[in-house]
Design brief:
178 residues; single chain; five-stranded mixed sheet; 5 helices; 7 strands; alpha/beta
């Protein structure tokens, strides 16, 4: 009986050691992802290149902080924040770039323009996340989510599923932007 108990303990300890080793290997692989080209991994920023519905090239993250607003053209609760971004865009022009990201991949320019009209036709780019790359990169799980990204790719702040009208958005930006 003692021999069986000892073997069971050894088996459990072995399984735990193997599990910890696998977790460490996976963690190291994730941390070193992208460094296969021989770079140090710490200096390059993985940027996403997209085209707005107005055929404007957009890069995320940009050369200055980027305010990403994840919405959908069919989402009427998203309009107040889109309007607030429109009103605040000039005020924050020297501190951030605003980009609205429509998370519905099959949406067209006409559908996005239908959303932009009640928001006051904002000047900032509207992109349709056709591949889901932006949505996945910033772990977006609900509409009305705002993510502020530094030029180095660091997420400076986020408000998930929180539609913000002008004063709430201003407070969020003042607390988040450098």
């Amino acid at each position: 009986m003692t021999t069986t108990l000892t073997r069971r303990r050894i088996s459990i300890i072995t399984v735990l050691i193997v599990a910890v080793a696998l977790i460490l290997i996976l963690a190291m692989t994730a941390l070193n992802r992208g460094a296969a080209d021989g770079s140090s991994g710490g200096n390059s920023v993985d940027r996403i290149e997209v085209v707005s519905v107005d055929d404007e090239a957009v890069t995320v993250p940009a050369e200055r902080p980027t305010v990403l607003y994840f919405m959908a053209s069919w989402c009427y609760t998203c309009i107040p924040q889109a309007a607030a971004m429109n009103e605040l865009e000039d005020e924050y022009a020297d501190r951030a770039q605003f980009i609205a990201v429509d998370v519905t991949p099959e949406n067209t320019k006409a559908e996005v323009d239908g959303f932009r009209e009640p928001a006051g036709f904002p000047d900032h780019p509207y992109v349709v996340d056709k591949t889901g790359e932006l949505t996945q990169r910033y772990n977006i799980v609900s509409l009305d989510s705002t993510v502020v990204v530094a030029p180095d790719g660091e997420v400076l702040g986020r408000a998930d599923g929180k539609p913000m009208e002008i004063e709430a958005l201003r407070t969020f930006l003042d607390e988040t932007l450098p």
